[in-house]
Design brief:
Layout (H helix, E strand, L loop, with lengths): L1 E7 L2 E8 L2 E6 L14 E2 L5 H11 L16 H10 L8 E2 H7 L6 H9 L12 E2 L12 H13 L3
Parallel strand pairs: 1-4, 5-6
Antiparallel strand pairs: 1-2, 2-3
Length: 158
């Protein structure tokens, strides 16, 4: 596994992956904070596209990512991650709506848990899922980071 860091308006992000694709985006703080493992090798050269596209996103110049992704998870988690990628830039939906979209209308709590385990936040936009009452519920990078990402998508700057 290779890794590098990307400086962003929300702090230094950890990017990690291998020949399968990008596997991890780690936040600098919050429950989504990640550190490189001892067996990983620092090598920014393999993340050129990811670094460029994320930088464009933070500059308000990119709305969709075109990266080779390799998230890991259960079949259910991967189904949730796939559906998250369909939420349009600048829009939000509730956990209940996300559960309906995957054909499991009573599974909003399980959807929330899968959403919270998203290994590729931002690129797989779990920040676009909010509480049914419009509240900004849990987020791996912390609520202030979620607010910044939603602000970026609504106003063009983080």
């Amino acid at each position: 596994m290779k890794y590098c860091y990307l400086n962003s308006p929300i702090g230094q992000l950890l990017l990690a992956g291998d020949e399968e694709g990008l596997k991890i985006i780690g936040f600098p703080e919050g429950k989504g904070r990640r550190e490189p493992e001892e067996t990983w090798t620092e090598d920014a050269s393999v993340f050129g596209d990811a670094r460029r596209q994320l930088s464009e996103y933070f500059a308000g110049q990119r709305r969709h990512f075109d990266l080779k992704l390799a998230p890991h998870g259960t079949e259910f988690q991967l189904q949730v991650l796939k559906e998250l990628q369909k939420i349009p830039y600048g829009e939000t939906i509730s956990y209940g709506e996300l559960a309906k979209r995957i054909g499991r209308p009573k599974a909003s709590r399980a959807v929330g848990m899968a959403n919270g385990r998203n290994p590729l936040p931002i690129v797989i936009p779990c920040h676009r899922v909010i509480g049914s009452n419009g509240s900004l519920t849990g987020f791996g990078g912390g609520i202030p980071t979620k607010k910044k990402l939603l602000h970026l998508e609504h106003n063009g700057s983080a």
